[in-house]
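Posting for a labmate who doesn't have an account.
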Amino acid sequence: MTNKPKTLTLKSSCIISLLAGAAIFLILYGTKILNPLYTDWIKTSQCMDLTQHYYGWLFFKNSDWNFPFGLFDSLSYPNKISIIFTDSIPIFAIFFKLILKLFKFQGEFQYFGIYALLCFALQGLFGFLITRKFIKSNITSILYSILFCLSFPMISTMFVHTALSSHWILLSCFLILINYKIFQRKNIKFQALILALIAFFASSTHIYLIIECLIILFPYFILQYIYSAKKEKNTLKPALNSTILLSVFILTSLSVIYLNGGFSSGVWYETQNLINGFFRSDFLFLLRSGRLSVFHTILFNSPDAQVSAYCGLGFVFLIVLFFIKMLYNKFLLKKYRVEFLVFFILFLAVFFLSMFPILSFNNHVLYEFDLSSFALLEKLTNIFRANGRFVIINSYILMILPLFVVNKIKKKQLVFLLLA
């Protein structure tokens, strides 16, 4: 009698995917920046944004407590400013300020290395959970999750706009979206709790993440209504449930922003908005990643690296494979018709939003919308001047789509993807 080889349990696989994500961080950045007392790497950084985020935290740490908790005046006395507007990751800033105040610590302290490690670990976990939806092998799913940890949009902003590199929050929204049939069967309280948690982490990390999460989750609210309406005799209750879930997300976000001082800041900055189209994407967003892309010699270098959704050459091959299989496999098209339609509409909407108002192809303007007469739109877009960042959503759509058709990825193929 032969014993069957032991297989990895789901729980063990989740832990391994967490550790795999953390290991990738250590390989890329080492351990030195995890030391909270080591700050020279930030102060001497060539990226002024990271240095600004650190000094914003430093002034916040050394200031007295205020209410709302994210306010401080040591940087702009006598006016108070919110920690939100220094991009210093409010949830970590408030937590570590509390700890350091309790221990009366006065020296320099940084948490950006620790936070980045956490982002890589959670990226691995949620990447695994998304992959496991389509690939039943835990080992193969763990290997595929490594690709999420090697995401160019995340790595390229990790120590530029560290808060914006919290892509695990976006993956948690995608996890709900691809499991919409299972998630909508849960009771309304459970759904509201999960959405509130996502809203809490998004709004206590960076405001852009709130909008990105809402964009990803919006199709879920619609699907939740459609599938619930089929079971109910009237459509009032499903409509009410969808409205409640959307309201929970929005109200949680607004509450956290309020507690972080987002509505009480006495200092405001005049910034460029998306009307000028400076921080935008274009039709070649999939191939652009500076010198990391094999196409960099023929592409115009954008002023903002965040306008790219480059997934790597391996994923370019996988995406081509996806469309080929779609053309020759009507069964898959019928089986996942709702999912494909949702992702297609979401992709196009994000694509247009990230390019708006100037449609361009490799620095050649194809069409420009004249928004000079839309004063209200200009005021609204003052909040989000770098609309090119939204194309990150499409990066993960392109990483998830092949999973619908490549459900038996061989390990040798995954090694090729990692190398590509």
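Reply:
Got it, the structure tokens are right above this. The radius of gyration is 22 Å.
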